């Protein structure tokens, strides 16, 4: 009975700390050499909490996260001075457009089925609406992404506990299959609606993205997930890397480093072959669902990414890139333009 309250309290504490950290750097910039005790009193926290915040700030900064990218500070006894602010030189203030965008996003989040910590979202929404004033009441149209009718049909099947026959497109394998599933729940993750169901074909729980379900028929039989059906932990997103999935290592240039923020990576480090201090290329290792997906992923990233391992992925990428170039070559017979 106490776990939801503990989780909600943890979310509130994290939100409060984030707000404090965003304002801490400009506060210290305006008061170079301020005593830690004085700063703690001004901010309404203990000295211990403030020192923990300062330790966290030391590892925050700009993408690259190397020397010259991270927030830096100097201590003189019990006094602290910010020596590099990483661009956080003003207290956090929202423009009317930014406040309205947050209000719309939070209103949508509140209406999302299966969202965790709804009370924390509602509290954040109330605070931003209060701060935004009249701008929060501007007329806007809010619509969840995806096929609304399809999502409602899936929710209905879950509520009625009915099995479904679906025609589903699997993007990772670029194939369409027909399956009979026992629906368990519908969730919104990263802006997409998913049906979580026991797949009788795979004999395990699967996640089906609603906009990739080409057709569905509600069957005249009850949904009956077996006792061993376990729901996925969606707190970190849909994809959960595991040791049994293929491990891919890529050499990544500066403009493609964003993938380390977007995809879960097992290892990110400077490429030792790029030369000391160059900092231009990273070696990035991540798990993938299968090598076909990895091939399309790498090709889509362009010349800023090359495959280090596994060798078969490098060969597939090289062959498909060569085939694409051949498609642009002049036909063997040649043509004459007019």
Automatic annotation (TrEMBL):
It comes from the Bacteria. InterPro entries: CBASS_pafABC_assoc_protein, PafC-like, PafC_HTH, WCX_dom, WYL_dom. PROSITE patterns: WYL. Residues 151-216 form the WYL domain. Residues 16-129 form the PafC HTH domain. Residues 248-325 form the WCX domain. This is YafY family protein.
């Amino acid at each position: 009975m106490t776990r939801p309250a503990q989780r909600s309290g943890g979310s509130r504490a994290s939100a409060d700390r984030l707000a404090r950290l965003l304002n801490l750097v400009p506060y210290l910039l305006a008061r170079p050499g301020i005593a830690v005790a004085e700063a703690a009193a001004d901010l309404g926290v203990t000295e211990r909490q403030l020192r923990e915040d300062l330790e966290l700030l030391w590892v925050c900064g700009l993408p690259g996260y190397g020397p010259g990218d991270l927030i830096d500070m100097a201590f003189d006894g019990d006094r602290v001075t910010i020596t590099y602010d990483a661009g956080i030189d003003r207290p956090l203030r929202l423009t009317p457009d930014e406040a309205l965008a947050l209000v719309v996003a939070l209103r949508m989040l509140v209406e999302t089925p299966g969202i965790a910590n709804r009370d924390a979202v509602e509290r954040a929404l109330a605070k931003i609406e209060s701060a935004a004033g009249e701008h929060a009441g501007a007329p806007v149209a809010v619509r969840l992404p995806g096929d609304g009718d399809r999502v409602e049909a899936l929710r209905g099947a879950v509520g009625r506990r009915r099995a479904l026959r679906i025609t589903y497109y699997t993007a990772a394998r670029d194939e369409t299959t027909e399956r009979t599933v026992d629906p368990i729940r519908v969730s919104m993750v990263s802006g997409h609606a998913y049906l979580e169901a026991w797949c009788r074909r795979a004999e395990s729980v699967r996640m089906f993205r609603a906009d990739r379900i080409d057709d569905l028929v509600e069957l005249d039989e009850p949904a009956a997930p077996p006792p061993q059906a376990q729901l996925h932990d969606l707190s970190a997103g849909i994809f959960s890397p595991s040791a049994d999935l293929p491990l891919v290592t890529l050499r990544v240039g500066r403009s493609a480093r964003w993938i380390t923020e977007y995809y879960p990576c097992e290892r990110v480090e400077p490429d030792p072959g790029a030369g000391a201090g160059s900092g231009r290329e990273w070696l990035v290792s991540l798990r993938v669902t299968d090598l076909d997906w990895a091939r399309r992923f790498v090709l889509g990233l362009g010349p800023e990414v090359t495959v280090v391992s596994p060798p078969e992925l490098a060969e597939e990428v090289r062959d498909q890139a060569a085939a694409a170039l051949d498609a642009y070559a002049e036909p063997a017979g040649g043509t004459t333009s007019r």
